[in-house]
Write a structure and sequence with these properties.
It is a single chain. This protein is an alpha/beta fold and 230 residues long. The protein has a single domain, classed as P-loop containing nucleotide triphosphate hydrolases (Rossmann fold, 3-Layer(aba) Sandwich), CATH 3.40.50. 49% of the residues lie in helices and 11% in strands. The protein is built from nine helices and five strands; from the N terminus they run βαβαααβααβααβα. It has a five-stranded parallel β-sheet, covered by helices on one side. Helix 3 runs antiparallel to helix 4 and helix 4 packs parallel to helix 6. The structure holds 2'-deoxycytidine-5'-triphosphate (DCP).
Length: 230
């Protein structure tokens, strides 16, 4: 099959002019981010930008998410570079609405996911070095500002149960140790504020509960999430 890797149409896209109030929702795999986004997308004046998992699963026909989970040593660089690209795109997107609500960010891609792959010996050091250089360049040269992080905090066990229940085939081999180390990296970054800088205030919502209770907790924090920029 012929593959075309050039995209001539985007050569001169203007940079965003004004900074939009941006909220990023962060947390482990299966912590409830999609539920959070679905809840808040009904709110007036909010535009939601979900993580483009479908794009990651079809890069010119290649499922990079599946490849990474099947053989991380070989494919996590390809996968994480593509994630980085899609995240830069989301950070730089304009919104017609007052509040931009984004699922994860370039920060967590680097500080949690890439860091986890490297520390767990699932990513060769040279790949980690290359990704870090890319990340550093982006951080210095692109607008990746976030005004508020909402951290959905759940135990690795809760995350594992939800991953099993939703049955996304790529994730079925994810071990509890992987979820545990991702959890620890989120906690180190957002709660203990170790090693990596937190770019903005953090609001923590615990999501170790059923769906009804989760909606209640989101509702309770609604004003402090949506009205902070007023
Ligand atoms: N992923 C990754 N590296 C990243 C970002 C995501 O390896 N930098 C992986 C983790 C998941 C998949 O991509 O297997 C989708 O990520 P999410 O956990 O963000 O999406 P969910 O829909 O699973 O979120 P939630 O269950 O909280 O709704």
């Amino acid at each position: 099959r012929e593959r075309n890797y050039d995209n001539v149409q985007t050569a001169s896209r203007p940079k965003p002019s004004k900074k939009k109030y941006t909220v990023a929702v962060e947390g482990n795999i299966g912590c409830g981010k999609s539920t959070f986004l679905n809840y808040f997308k009904k709110a007036h004046n909010v535009e939601v930008f979900p993580e483009p998992v479908d794009k990651w699963k079809d890069v010119h026909g290649f499922n990079t998410l599946e490849k990474m989970y099947n053989d991380a040593q070989r494919w996590s660089l390809a996968f994480q570079s593509f994630v980085q690209l899609t995240m830069v795109d989301i950070h730089s997107k304009e919104s017609e609405h007052g509040i931009k609500l984004i699922e994860r960010s370039l920060y967590s891609a680097r500080y949690c996911f890439v860091e986890n792959l490297y520390r767990s010996n699932l990513m060769p050091e040279v790949d980690y070095a290359v990704l870090s250089e890319f990340y550093n360049w982006i951080q210095e040269n692109q607008d990746m500002h976030v005004d508020l992080i909402v951290y959905l905090q759940a135990t690795p066990k809760t995350c594992q149960d939800r991953i099993r229940a939703r049955n996304r085939h790529e994730e079925q081999s994810v071990p509890i140790e992987y979820l545990q180390s991702l959890h620890d990296l989120h906690e180190d970054w957002l709660i203990h504020q170790k090693k990596f800088k937190v770019p903005c205030p953090v609001l923590v919502i615990n999501t170790d509960c059923d769906l009804q209770e989760m909606y209640k907790r989101f509702d309770k924090q609604k004003d402090s999430i949506l009205l902070r920029n007023k």
